[in-house]
Amino acid sequence: MDFMKKEIIERTLQKSNISEEIKIISKKILNFQRITPNEGLILYIKGELGFLGMLANYVKENINKQLVYYNQNLHIEPTNICLYKCKFCSYSSKNNEDAWELSEQQIIKKIKKHFNNQITEIHIVGGVHPDRDLHYYGNIIKKIKQLFPTIHIKAFTAVEIDYMSKKSGLSLLDGLNALKSYGLDSIPGGGAEILDDQIRKQICGAKSNSKTWLLVHETAHQLGIPSNATMLYGHIEHYKHRIAHLNLLRELQDKTTGFNAFIPLKFRNKRNELAGINEVSVIEDLKNYAVCRIFFDNIPHIKAYWPMIGKETAQISLSFGVDDLDGTINDSTKIYSKAGADDINPMMDKNEMINFIKNANRIPVERDSLYNIINKLS
Ligand code: V47
Ligand code: SF4
After folding, report:
1. Whose CA is closest to atom 27 on ligand 1?
2. Do residues 327 and 365 touch, judged by C-beta distance below 8 A?
3. Is the CB of residue 124 below 6 angstroms from any atom belonging to ligand 1?
């Protein structure tokens, strides 16, 4: 099968008017050789979408065959009160009137309301509350683990962890160790935005810088806490910033192998300070998925986070290198609908998810948070 696909791409290369430089890069990709940052940049600038899709799909199928992963999960957002004022953020409170915070009891109540025995993961991300330290959140995850001992807790972006560790007077190493003891199982990929401090200064200057974001993940990986990585794209950054971001992540992954998945996050422009910037096209979204899949020869999964990108684009992305759709969500998040995502009540039940994947001619696989297979349909 792979042989045939390779031959088809090679024939396309011979016949078409594809440029010499793209031909050279394509041959490397077909032989599973790592492409350089500059070659990644050329793909972004000169790659034709259909052809990039073929290449990304070839890479994807070599790693994940026809499989597409999803899980059954809940999202908990503890507060929208945030010390920082990222310009792209539609979620954090703007004044006292729209500020809210869930107490531990309310968090537990919310989990109980949405929980069913099929849910395997709770994802917890929120604002960086200036008054809450690491032990406050640590005790909440400890309580969740006591009530739901089998649940995997994927919680707190590197930015939250950086702040709460400092607030408790702990180094990153000690902070992460303490969170692990409280019950933290893995770390989501948020807060990465663009790992370039010039860009960060303009869109999220106050929060953890690139070096700190990377250090939180590196330290977590050293402690056996796996994580994801994201990239917020389609605002003021250029392709060179995206490639530099991907390269920093690829270098760290070479060192630690701790990233499970990479999640491109499309900038959505509603109700935030960057609202004057147009959102990029679907063509750009698909191209971005494809280049990321091709560039990362060492991160196993590329995730299309459907509540953010929208169901239709998420389904098409399965032909552009994506092999993971995150989860059922169960109507437990509102962050993205505020920023302009289509789904106001994001939720896909298991059967909808299965049909969604089957209709894209892929094999649905229910996974746990570490990509162990729970259920695979042929
Ligand atoms: O860091 C905020 C992004 C992230 C906007 O690891 C925005 O499995 C687009 O990281 N337009 C948090 N994006 C969410 C996140 C995440 C989500 C799902 C799964 C995982 C995972 C991680 O959301 C932030 C920021 O990059 N974000 N505002 C916006 N207007
Ligand atoms: Fe706070 Fe996160 Fe919003 Fe930035 S993106 S303002 S850190 S909630």
Report:
1. 89
2. no
3. no
Counting ligands in written order, the one closest to the CA of 124 is: 1
Q: Are residues 31 and 157 in the same domain?
A: no
Tokens 């089957």 belong to residue: 358
DSSP 327: E
Q: Are residues 342 and 277 in the same domain?
A: yes
Q: Tell me: do 16 and 125 sit in the same domain.
A: no
CA dist 260 and 189 (Å) reads 10
Strand-pairing partners, residue 296, are: none
Q: Ligand 2: distance of its center to the CA of 9 in Å?
A: 43
pTM over 0.70? The answer is: yes
pLDDT digits (tens, 9 = 90+) for 165-176: 999 999 999 999
CATH of the domain at 143: 3.20.20.70
How far, in Å, is the centroid of ligand 2 from the Cα of 190? 10
The length of the chain, given as a count of residues: 378
Instruction: Find the 159 Cα to ligand 2 centroid distance in Å.
Output: 9
Looking at the CA of 271, which ligand is closest? 1
Strand ranges (DSSP E) for 1-94?
Answer: 67-71, 73-76
DSSP category for residue 75:
E
Are residues 120 and 193 both part of a single domain? yes
- What is the tens place of the pLDDT at every residue in 282-321? 999 999 999 999 999 999 999 999 999 999 999 999 999 9
